[in-house]
Amino acid sequence: MKGRFGRRRLGASALVVALLAAVVGWAVWPEQDSFRTENRLLSLKSGPDGNQAVDIDTTFYLPEGASADRPVPAVLLAHGFGGTKDSVRTDAEDLAGQGYAVLAYTARGFGRSGGEIHLDSPDFEVRDAARLLDWLAARAEIRTDAAGDPRVGVVGGSYGGGLALLLAAADPRVDAIVPMITWHDLAASFLPESSGRPTLDGVFKKGWAGIFFGSGGSGPGGLGGPAAGTVPGAVTGTEPAPGIGPGTGPGAGAPNPACGRFAADVCAAYLEIATTGRATEQAVALLRRSSPAGVLDRIKAPTLLIQGEADTLFPLSEADANARGIAAAGTPVRVAWFTGGHDGGAGPQTDQDRTKFLTVQWLDHYVRGDGADPGTSFTWSRLAGFDALDRGLVATGFRTADYPGLTGTDTAAGGGIRTVTVAGPPQQIANPPNGNPAAISTVPFAGVLSSVVGGVAGDLPGQHARFVTEPLAEPVDVVGSPTVSVRAASPTGEAVLFVKLYDLGPDGTAELPSGLIAPVRLSGLPADLAGAAPVRVTLPGIVHRVEAGHRLALVVATSDQGYATPVAPAVYSVGLGGDQITLPTVAGEPIATTGVLWRWALAALLAAIVVGLVVVLLVVRRRHRRHDTSVTAEYADIPLVIRGLRKEYADGFVAVSRVDFEVHRGQVVGLLGPNGAGKTTTLRVLMGLTQPTAGEIHVFGHRLVPGSPVLSRIGALVEGPGFLPHLTGIANLRSYWRATGRPLADAHFDEAIEIAGLGDSIHRRIKTYSHGMRQRLAIAQAMLGLPELLVLDEPTDGLDPPQIAEMRRVLRRYATGGRAVLVSSHLLAEVEQSCTHAVVVNKGVIVAAGPVEEIVGESPSVQFDVSDPVAARAVFNRLDGVRVLSNGDGTLVVDVDGTARSEVVAELVRAGVGVDRVMPRRRLEDAFLALVGENSRGSGDR
């Protein structure tokens, strides 16, 4: 993960005072750089004997004002696997802006750094990092605790997070660490087994292992890791660390093409496991050498563990094991989960703000020595819907005083357990030969690869068994690892199975939270299920709300694209080992939003002035809401009536002078006008995003003001919505609807999806969607609840011609059954074909309104529907003054230039061309230009 170190309020009002100073500091943070940078290729000596030379590419960020007389604390910043120091540049700049000296570097084997990749080996990568601490300690600008001991924190994500843990265990000079989305046991991560069997029996995670190996074996830069460049204006050069001689650069020797820049032992271990699909003791020992699991008791640096909930590489269980091991040694540990991860990215901005604040708070207390003790409370989040203002995804954060773990059994820390009954008969499932075809639960780095698999996902017929619960009577917020019991029988005595827990909606749609599954390898199985013993399976930790009325489906499958499975085909029998699914929960208090925190900050900065303005606004808004209870009888059955609308800004600019129009049931009304005519302002006023200077808007007779209940009868797409890419289309729609607070039964998902024409693609993840599909999903979101008035701003923006044609059909289908549509568009041909009525605005006033055919009016051009367009064109070309303007399927539009239509028709008949229809033809574009003028620029609408 790329860290995003920032502000986030972590409690109710009791925490506001403690955070206010930090927030104000961020608010006034200067935009210009408050640091300088130095690029250096440092020559270090490490390796098992401490005498092997290597060049490490670094960038040193030094805050302005730091000097020998005013030393500052430092942060060693490590990147993720396949990256370079440039991958963490934004994070380094953020921390440098907070007053830390930051040393960002490219790990050995990547980018411009020399050496080979040893997977965070204590003898190599960890020793390299210790030598970088030596270099920091020798800088006069760095605060030290003793000679050679810098005041330093270590921060990193994934590969860099593992480095932070291992370095803290090896080097007591580290004062605090913030490892993010990283591992506990690298062997168990790539060879997971969820029934408690040894790692040697783990199921090889071939998908992620292939990505890992490929990104390290591709030469300098790796996957997503471009070679490091020079920061403009920075100092460059090669400098040995204290007492260290020259080293070797990346060009010191040609890499083995089979292994890239991996060390030989790492490459051999991967090739053997990838070939056989089974681990060896030597390979497990090698991976555990690079794992914090065996050294957690040596970590004395206070540790903030940040882990992603959408992470099939290093799931929540990895951070859980690290937290328990470090805390057992008496070291302060804090755990934070967020909605992103290796599969979910950085998460919504609300999550990024929270983890950013936690990181700075942790470093400030334990490295800088400022601020109160942040404590060891636990924070987590789940997706709550979409922001009402910018339509981006919002994650709701929660906190509890202690970390309860994944099981829900620690009731003192807020843990709890819910059980639900699951049922279903024993079933037979087939293991496909050589694991092909296989189900797809998730795709590593799906943002890059999802286009390859398209919509092919889910469990394959004949390869999975399904057991289902009854609908839940009330919602359950799962926080932790669910557990189930299954039984299995196999003719070979062995089986590899994949256990999954789906959330089934009332409409039958299934959601697999974050694509997480539990692989198990069973041996000693009987041939008959009657003799099989129950096996308890612990599923990956999740944070997921199962709504009331939803069911849970326990699926046991034989294949998964991401894992290695037995080559030989076989048929297994599987059944339930018990009738209970155990769901862990955590009782926590919501974390206040960033918006609330900013209101406190503004109140502190502006004091009585802001309070007075807020009071005035509240009074005005309350008066408006009181007026909203009245209904204007003559407008009661009209979806939209706008009367005398005017919008004038404080500087005297008039965006809308006077706008009056109506939208009736069954109409699709196009709002037209040149750029700056006032269209956007009209829509913003309609949706309550800005207040009019004068005039009124009535929706079904109710005067429209912010907060009006009648707004629930309007669906709108005025700005592009934000969708979470790793969730399906239907999951995004459900998240949005939950955010509205209305009952799920009122959403009309099926109808909206059918009208938008999404079909089966609604069950695909957003990251596989084309632009046109995202636009149709946005339309479906606006249609949820089947609002009686649909307001769309440029719905065809960015669509190709087939998609535009489909959107045209969508609008026509929607404006049935008494509903109405108001659409703003600059595509006049589309308005002409899809809209029944049009309103033309120019310079803030309406210049025409009515049915489209009336606005188009009479025409000097004539449309001929003929039996033979080619022969007809030849006839027209022979006639003086007759000019063909365009043609289509059986249709010709002709400028007759005063020639009698009867004469033209006669010529066609004499030539043997059948004439089906003759009618005047004038395009809406012609009428539009006549109304507004070809050079009109409107009023400069804002």
Q: Can you walk through the features of this model?
A:
- With 942 residues, the protein is an alpha/beta fold.
- It has 4 domains: 33-301, Rossmann fold; 416-586, Sandwich (Jelly Rolls); 626-852, Rossmann fold (3-Layer(aba) Sandwich), CATH 3.40.50.300; 858-921, 2-Layer Sandwich (Alpha-Beta Plaits), CATH 3.30.70.100.
- Helices cover 27% and strands 27% of the residues.
- It contains 23 helices and 41 strands.
- A hairpin with a 5-residue loop joins strand 28 (640-648) and strand 29.
- The longest helix is centred in the middle third of the chain and has 20 residues, at 349-368.
Q: What's the arrangement of secondary structure elements?
A:
Blueprint: H1 16-27, E1 35-46, E2 52-63, E3 74-78, H2 89-97, E4 101-105, H3 125-138, E5 144-146, E6 149-150, E7 152-157, H4 159-170, E8 174-180, H5 186-190, H6 206-216, E9 238-240, H7 264-276, H8 281-289, E10 303-308, H9 316-328, E11 333-338, H10 349-368, E12 378-386, E13 393-400, E14 415-423, E15 427-431, H11 446-453, E16 464-469, E17 476-480, E18 483-489, E19 494-504, E20 510-511, E21 518-523, E22 535-538, E23 542-546, E24 551-557, E25 570-576, E26 580-586, E27 589-590, H12 594-606, H13 608-627, E28 640-648, E29 654-663, E30 668-672, H14 679-686, E31 694-699, E32 702-703, E33 714-717, H15 729-740, H16 749-756, H17 771-783, E34 789-793, H18 801-814, E35 820-824, H19 828-834, E36 837-842, E37 845-851, H20 852-856, E38 861-866, H21 869-878, E39 883-888, E40 891-895, H22 901-910, E41 915-921, H23 924-932
Parallel strand pairs: 1-9, 3-4, 3-7, 7-8, 8-10, 10-11, 11-12, 30-35, 30-36, 33-34, 34-35
Antiparallel strand pairs: 1-2, 2-4, 5-6, 12-13, 13-27, 14-16, 14-26, 15-25, 16-24, 17-23, 18-22, 18-25, 19-20, 19-21, 19-24, 28-29, 28-31, 31-32, 36-37, 38-40, 38-41, 39-40
Helix pairs in contact: 1-12, 3-4, 7-8, 16-17
